[in-house]
Design brief:
The chain folds into 3 domains: 48 residues, no CATH class; 92 residues; 176 residues, SPRY domain (Jelly Rolls, Sandwich), CATH 2.60.120. Helix content is 32%, strand content 26%. Strand 1 and strand 2 form a beta hairpin. Helix 2 runs antiparallel to helix 3. It starts with 18 loop residues before the first strand and ends with a strand.
Length: 345
């Protein structure tokens, strides 16, 4: 006869067990069997609720919400810093602009005085009219464009967002180049930084720079203004060894550069692709960055408006170092202004 196993929960009462749970290895009477099953059912429901809660986390992203909050706060703080830095830069530009306007106003007063005196005395010629017209155009340029001595600098040593600030360079440090000419048609202004063709008639006129470039890389920034798009104007380099008297005639030396009709000087340097190239042709105003690489023996220019770039390799036998800036003006009212000049390396 087998031994009697009592109900685990009714052991003190001597009630025999009728069901043994294989999960917990306990024996229960009929009453406690049902209660034990209900208990297991309740435990399963709690686990299922916890399972549902975890499943909801897959869509709620609560795990990363704190990180998102930190990122959002960083974004807000960064925007505030950027806006403040930008506003400070705007205020600096406004201050510099006001100073430049005052300086331009002084030049305007001088021209206005000359015009009034000419009107009263009737002592003026065609060349005076052209000169005043060009000078007024230069003043208008100054009112619309900040001086090249004022630049926006970005601090690339910073992290994700570069800091910016406004710098004002010494004007002499960016304009060590000056313009000279033996042509009687050429007049100068702004301490020989502006060359003007004032006639009295259309005629070839050459303007050269005083600086010599024998090594390193150099940049000259020019504002070129043509009276019309009908006649040719060019910006070039020449060898110091080339006499001015031979520029327009046969010479053992050549000049290298570009014409306002997009032709190349000298013509044999033109490429097949240059035939259909259009950048300067048909325009009367150019902002040009002219680059001279003496070490690599080549020159190039960058048109600030069209973003076009062109390059020429220089035959050092035909254009020996040192080089000098050479400008060709023909039409009355044509002018060239030196905006800046500096050595890059």
């Amino acid at each position: 006869m087998s031994a009697i196993t009592f109900c685990t929960l009714c052991e003190n009462k001597g009630v025999s067990g009728i069901f043994r749970c294989e999960g917990c290895s306990q024996t229960f009477c009929l009453q406690h069997t049902n209660e034990h099953r209900q208990y297991l059912t309740h435990q399963l429901k709690e686990i299922m609720l916890e399972n549902e809660a975890i499943f909801k986390c897959f869509t709620d992203n609560k795990q990363s919400s704190l990180l998102f909050d930190q990122i959002n706060q960083w974004e807000k703080d960064s925007i505030v810093k950027v806006q403040q830095t930008a506003q400070n830069a705007r205020l600096q530009i406004q201050q510099f602009s006001q100073v430049q306007k005052e300086q331009t106003k002084e030049k305007f007063s001088q021209i206005n005085k000359q015009l009034e005196e000419a009107r009263q005395t009737q002592k003026y010629l065609e060349k005076d009219l052209y000169r005043w017209k060009i000078l007024l155009e230069q003043l208008q340029y100054d009112l619309c464009m900040l001086s090249p001595s004022i630049i926006l600098h970005q601090d690339h040593s910073q992290g994700l967002i570069n800091n910016i600030f406004i710098l004002k360079k010494d004007q002499q440090s960016i304009l060590n180049e000056k313009l000279i000419s033996s042509s009687t048609e050429i007049y100068f202004d702004d301490n020989h930084h502006v060359a003007m063709h004032c006639g009295p008639c259309r005629a070839p006129a050459h303007v050269i720079g005083t600086q010599e470039y024998s090594s390193g890389q150099h940049q000259i920034r020019l504002f070129i203004s043509k009276s019309t798009d009908e006649f040719i104007l060019s910006f070039n380099i020449m060898s110091k060894l080339m006499p001015m008297s031979t520029i327009s005639s046969d010479s053992q030396y050549l000049t290298y550069g570009w014409q306002s009709n997009d032709c190349v000087n000298p013509s044999h340097c033109s490429l097949a692709s240059d035939k259909h190239f259009q950048d300067l042709r048909g325009k009367t105003k150019f902002h040009i960055k002219l680059f001279m690489d003496c070490d690599q023996q080549k020159i190039s220019y960058f048109n600030e408006k069209t973003k076009q770039t062109r390059e020429i390799n220089v035959d050092i036998q035909k254009c020996p170092l040192p080089w000098k800036l050479l400008l060709y003006l023909y039409d009355i009212g044509d002018s060239v202004r030196l905006l800046s000049s500096c050595q890059l390396s």
